[in-house]
Design a protein that fits this description.
Blueprint (H helix, E strand, L loop, with lengths): L1 H31 L4 E7 L5 E7 L23 H8 L2 H4 L2 H6 L3 E3 L6 H4 L15 E3 L1 H5 L3 H4 L6 H23 L2 H16 L1 H14 L4 H8 L25
Parallel strand pairs: 3-4
Antiparallel strand pairs: 1-2
Helix pairs in contact: 9-10, 10-11
């Protein structure tokens, strides 16, 4: 049922969003006369790699820098790219991956292999389902770029401030997923573009009904400052990209 639902909504979404996507695709192309698309290598279900289609929001060959996490003031982001990121248009293009079966509409966000290689045994649960365009963490950390803004090392900051909560929420989704929750998350993802606070308030209500613990609820409310934490299944905070913790 989930796959059928994904296919129908992805197909419909691509058709309905084409009046928005096509002009933006043209604007990305004419800014530097390069492909308006970026093919991002990601790790999917069963640790199988796949190619995720994204509208290109950065300069050509931005991935050659070796930096995986993107802050809102990243100099690699183009003028059109800021518009794309603000309204999550790069995620609309991922409906294509949903259509062909690499992704689902709702599920843990896919990550690059450099990050999944650092996953703990607990985090490996995130790779047992199809990755999605949205889930609990997509709403909670929709301002990821702002969280990483001005960080000396965005990748380390991501692993300390975002990865722990993101992984916990992803695992919580997998353990509690059902059709109704998927519908609610798709709706709240749209609401978050208009009013993130309203979306967060509704999301916290859902988490409480599902029996989420106080830590998860606290992180999801975003009313407290994010602090470095160990990822699920680890006792210590990540301090480098080789996976060692302290």
């Amino acid at each position: 049922m989930k796959r059928t639902f994904d296919f129908i909504l992805a197909f419909t979404g691509l058709i309905l969003s084409s009046p928005i996507l096509l002009p933006v695709i043209f604007l990305v192309w004419i800014q530097d006369w390069h492909s308006p698309f970026y093919i991002a290598q990601r790790v999917g279900k069963g640790e199988k790699p796949f190619k995720m289609l994204k509208l290109r929001s950065m300069i050509v060959n931005a991935d050659k820098s070796g930096v995986d996490s993107t802050s809102s003031n990243d100099k690699r982001i183009t003028g059109v790219g800021r518009f794309i990121r603000k309204y999550k248009l790069d995620e609309l293009s991922q409906l294509w991956n949903v259509l062909i079966g690499d992704m689902s509409l709702v599920g843990p966000r896919p990550n690059v292999k450099r990050e999944t290689d650092l996953y703990t045994i607990e985090e490996k649960k995130l790779l047992t389902v199809r990755p999605g365009i949205t889930d609990f963490s997509s709403i909670v950390f929709s301002d990821e770029g702002d969280i990483l803004k001005d960080q000396i090392d965005p990748d380390i900051a991501y692993n300390q401030l975002i990865r722990p909560g993101k992984s916990m929420l992803g695992i919580f989704y997998i353990e509690n997923r059902n059709f109704i929750i998927d519908i609610q998350l798709i709706y709240l993802t749209v609401i978050a573009i208009i009013s993130k606070q309203k979306a967060l308030n509704s999301l916290v209500v859902i988490l409480k009904k599902l029996g989420a613990n106080e830590l998860l609820i606290g992180i999801s409310s975003r009313k407290i400052q994010l602090v470095p934490m160990p990822p699920p299944g680890a006792e210590n905070i990540v301090t480098n990209r080789e996976g060692r913790v302290s």
